[in-house]
Every structure is written in C-alpha cells, then in structure tokens.
Request: fold
Amino acid sequence: MPIEISGPSPPPPKPRGLAIGIDLGTTNSVAARTDGRHQPMVIGGPRGALIPSVVAYVNGEIRVGADAYAAAALHPSDTIVSVKRFMGRGLEDVRGELAHLPYQFNPGSGGVIRFRAGGREVTPVEVSAAILKSIKDMVEQREGQPVEDVVITVPAYFDDAQRQATRDAGRLAGMNVLRLLNEPTAAALAFGINRDRDGVIAVYDLGGGTFDISLLRLAGGVFEVLSTGGDSHLGGDDFDRALLDLALQKAGASVGDLNPARLRAALSAARKAKEELSAASSVTLTLHLPGGQRQTDVTREELEQAIRPLIERTLQACRQALRDAGIKKTEVLEVLLVGGSTRSPLVKQMVAGFFGRQPHDEVDPDLAVALGAAIQADTLTRGREDVLLLDVCPLSLGLETMGGVVEKVIHRNSRLPAGARQTFTTYADNQTGMDFHVLQGERETAAACRSLGRFKLSGIPPLPAGMARVEVTFLLDADGILLVTARETSTGKEAGIEVKPSWGLTDEEVERMLQESMDHAEGDFTERLIREARVEGERILAALDRALREDRALLAPGEAERIQAVADRLGQAIAGDSQRAIRDLIEELDRVSAPFAQRRMNRSISQALEGRRADQIVRQMG
Ligand code: ADP
Ligand code: MG
Reply:
C-alpha cells in the first residue's frame, strides 16, 4: 500500500546551462541547439548561422568570424584561416601545407606548431578555442542562457591526437565537452536516418577546402564507420579558383596580374558568383585589374565545364572508399549530401549518377552537421533534469517472509521519494520477536535477491499467532536512502535500519538482475506458490495440534485418529515439491476436522455469552 509522503519536498534542480552542438569546420563553423520539443535549430549571429572559421590577431585584439574574414585582406599574416588542418598535428606533418600559407610560425619547441600572429604566438588549439569561445559568447547573448555543455564534431578520419586537440580547445573555451561526434554520423542524425533500419549509408561532404566521403554501417541503432576517404585539398575553394581563372581569361588577364590583396578580393567575388550560379544561369563578375575595373559574364554551363573534372575526382575517392569497405554501390542504402559545395547542381547530378540513386538533400547541407551535433547534445543531456527530479527506484525493495518468499514493498520504477507500508503479523503463539530481512530485486525468493540488511524487533507482547500487528514502513528518499522501520501497534515498540540500496550497484548489475528475473519468471512463480502453500500448511498443522491438545474433550471416538492421519499426509506433502498436493490435503484436512471445529466454535460462543444478561443478548441480536 503506497503512502503519502509528507515533509520537505526535494530541492528544485540546479538550473543547468545550455547543451549545444558545434560544427567546427575548416571554412565555417555553426552552432545549434534543440528546442523544448527536442527539435534542432541553428543559432544565428547577426550575419547568419555560418561563422567563418577565421581568427585575426590585430591591434592587440582577437577577432573571429566575419570580422576576422574582413581583416584577412589587410593583415594576411595575422589572420589564421583553416586552422582545423593543424589541429593535433606536428610541424613535420604539415610542413608542405605551411609553405603555402602566409603565416609565420615558430619551428622551435618540440615540433609543436605555433603561429606568430599580431605579435604573439598561438597554437592551433588556442586559435580553435578562440573560435569556440566566440561562438559560446554569441549563443549566450542570443539565447540569454549560459552555455555549459557542447558536442563538437570532427572528421571521421581524425586520429587520437587531432581529437584530443579538439577536446582541449573546447575546454579552453570554457565548455564541458560531452562528446566528439564524427561529422558523417552527425549528418546522419540530422537527416533523421531511421535507426530501426540496418544498412550502409554514404555521406558525401564537400565543403570549402576539403572533401570527405564516409561509409557508415547502421546496425542496431549504432553507427560504425566502415571507411573514410576523400581529398583534404579539394573543395569549394577550388571551384572559386576555377571560376576566377575563367573570368580572368575572358577579360584577357591572368592571376599573375593581381597582387595578394586584389587576389583575395577577386576570390571573394568569385565565391559569391559561384554561389549565385547554383540558382542563376549566369552572373556578372566585377574584376579590379591593374588596367581598371572589368565586368565579365560567366554562365552556369561554363562553370560546370570547369569544375566537372574536380567533381570527377571526388567520385574517384568514393570508388576507393567503397573498395576499402568491400561494399558494392548497390549495397548503399542512402546517400546524404553535406557541405556547402553540394549546393552546386552539377555536384548533386554527378553524385546521383555515380550511386545510381537520388541523394538526400532535404537538410541544409552546411547546417546538417551542427544540427546533428545538437541532437546528440540533447540526447546526452536529456533526462538529466529528470534524473534529479524524477529518479526512480531501479529494483524492487521488499522483505523476506515465511518460507523464504519475498514480499515487495516498494515496486521497481516507483518515483523517488517513495514510501509504502505493510502490516505483518506473528507466525507463532507468544512470539515476542520478529526478524526482518530487507531485500532488493525482482526474483520471488529471498535467496535469489540481493540482501540489503537485517534487523530484529523485540518486545512484542505475547499473543496467539496472527494476533500481533507489526507495521513495516519503507521510505526511499530523493537521495536513494532507504529507511525501513517496523512498529508493533499496541506497544509502539520500534526497530529499523537505514541502507543505501544503490550502493555498490552498477547499471550493468541492475540490468543483469532484471534480465535474470525475466529469465526465471515462470520458475520463480511456481517456487513462490509452493513456498506459500508450505507456510500455510505448517500454520494449519500448528493450529490443529494446539486445538487437539486443548479440546480433547470435544472429540468423538476415533475422530482424533482420522484427523491425525490426514495431518500426517499433509506433513509429508509439505516436505515434497507439489503445491497441488499440499493444497488438496489442506482442503481434505478442513473437511475431516470441520465437525470438531464446529464444536469448538459453539463452545466459544456459549462461553462468551455466559454471565451476560438475557435482555442484553436479545437487544444485541435483534
Ligand atoms: P566546411 O565544412 O569546409 O567548413 P562548408 O560546408 O560551410 O565548409 O562549405 C563551404 C563551401 O560551400 C564554400 O566553398 C562555399 O562557397 C560553398 N557554398 C556555399 N553555398 C553555396 C552555393 N549556394 N552553391 C555552391 N557552393 C556553395
Ligand atoms: Mg563541414
């Protein structure tokens, strides 16, 4: 019987900060969160959700995103772009890469990369942390809530050092990194790939400077990376250059005619023109050449002709990844398009042609990874408040009763705090003490449950069996502490213990105990019935024994022997394993002793009536 629990209500849960997802991209970074209905949405700064992954160290200030991007043309060597390429890498790994960049770096200190920018030295982790910190600030300002936890995405091919560097950057930015999530897996989450299905999913991710193809196997709701491939120097930036070359050629110029600042500006213009050509069939590009300003028209067809060989290279990488995984194209269940460059119609078309199926493009390709990270952050923190507020009792709590059977008092999955009370009685005549054995588990027998503790209640007044009333109360508080008290109602005598049922129990053990109870459910049930029948049989035999001794005078000749014969058979059945046999003999014993019981009853009534006045009796009976 559940009881109402009074007393102080549990303290309100500590308000937790937001848990967000961040796609820390080579070109752009994106932050996302989930709403109250667990739906993901990106968080946009004043200039939109895409934050250029650029950090500028100018005039003693750190600028991030669009501001830094703007500064890049003026301060190329103090502006760090594509820092993701250097995360967790040693100087030796990236020497070739660095040669093409305008940064100065410190080749000293044990192979660690240090950029010299704006008169200071910064590591890739610090630069990434600056991006993450700026995103954190933006989110906090827009959402009016502190950011506490984050899921950051990384390419599937990132090794341990690269992952650790990313984790460090997150921590340096003042966030608790819940998990690093593979970008293709994040994309699959955002596309709502049905986790009930099993199969291979290809994630085609063409960003600004990198191309990644990942083959994931989805089995039992878990994503496994089968193979990854791609080209770390192939992406939308190459499309920009191809388009610029095209335009310059038409204008009778070449890249060599542009100084670095003009080249940067021209590449920006080319990028804008390329993006427009995903929707329009032709654009006009304005070029600032040494001879003056020139306007050039470029058509989509021309651009497509120029980028076709680049896209062909991505398909070559797809072929290789399939080979590596030992997967045939026809075995691929779904193809997902990720990365801003997959907005180019030709990319979609060629990917569809290659895989022989329409790829998914329903989710914004440059937001998908961040949306998936937010979904993951939500999953990892969901129920965290629930755990504080609505923690449940994972395994039932109860007492051992006669015959080694378990009487559950607080049932599994009861919400905390939980309380329940049950009344027990004495088993034997003049029993003055009672032993209590507190148990945890779903099994029906005490031996199969976990023992939490024992205590004894003494000082019960001597009474016939079944007459004393002992109330046992179980209280499981919000901290999971169990208080068991037993109280004899007539005297108020009390005893009890306090235990922590969850102490030393791991989730796996809870799991195992539940599994065992399911495995043994049927056997346990039968065992419980037998034990209960035995207890009842023994109780009846004890009562009969007492009656035969006390009321010998009420017995007819030969009656005692007839009753005793059945009682002996019941005693044998109790020693056996058949619940049916015990029940049948209890009934038979009832029948054969019924006349004797009737005589005893009549005698008690007449004794009770003795000494009372007749009119009282009449009134009572009337
Ligand atoms: P990353 O993952 O490398 O950070 P993104 O996924 O954000 O990069 O992709 C950036 C690239 O997507 C840039 O080259 C950008 O020009 C390109 N892009 C964005 N929008 C379009 C569009 N509408 N058409 C073609 N390319 C686009
Ligand atoms: Mg990306």
